[in-house]
Amino acid sequence: MKRLFPARATFIGSFVDQVPFSTLPDVVFAGRSNVGKSSLLNSAMYRKDLVKVSQTPGRTRLLSWFDVDARLRLCDLPGYGYAKVGGGEQLAWQSMIETYLQKREVLRALAILVDVRRGFEEEELLLLRTCHQWKLQPILIVTKCDQLKSNALFNQKVAIAKQMGGDIKRDFIWYSSKEHDGRDELWKRIAGFTGLSDAAVG
Ligand SMILES: Nc1nc2c(ncn2[C@@H]2O[C@H](COP(=O)(O)OP(=O)(O)OP(=O)(O)O)[C@@H](O)[C@H]2O)c(=O)[nH]1
Ligand SMILES: [Mg+2]
Fold first, then answer.
1. Per-residue confidence band for 195, with pLDDT thresholds at 50, 70 and 90
2. Which ligand is the nearest neighbour of the Cα of 55?
3. Residue 176 forms beta bridges with which residues?
């Protein structure tokens, strides 16, 4: 089967307190710690361990950037909501994204990841509002879909779509980083608003 892009993804670096300069479009991936951000980025970029999957969830405060075919950049944000980090963590996280991401002209989309068994909670609804405020394209990604059997998965899709007032097929990407389900849909979505086309990738 013909593979959609990317042809080649490389690690740019991890940064604590800056975003490396670029004129390429950015897509950033946000979600609760352990939701599967790093695994999804590896799957999306057709790589096994380009993105480090953290041993100690919730510890890393770095933003990791990846170049895709010298056409766009993806960013793995630190996870939020890890129980052991405690009180002001959510605020610190929110202020981090405001400091580094707000008003970046090249920032095109914010992918919001939720575990299929949890769905969208307060933090994700806040992120969705941030997208509207900043005029960013939200991409709603539901992860670990392989963890539910097909009936339970279907019921959960219906429940999540109903809660969000969305359409199962159109408004969500149902992903499994294990099976790579959802990968083509993700790239089609990204291609749609970054102006990349399938044919441009060799
Ligand atoms: N079955 C299954 N497991 C997954 C999937 N995606 C991630 N996992 C597992 O979930 C755990 C967390 O995955 P990560 O990719 O490290 O999650 P993360 O969101 O990057 O976590 P932080 O970096 O701590 O914020 C790992 O044990 C993964 O193997 C998936 O699609 N299916
Ligand atoms: Mg991670």
1. confident
2. 1
3. 181
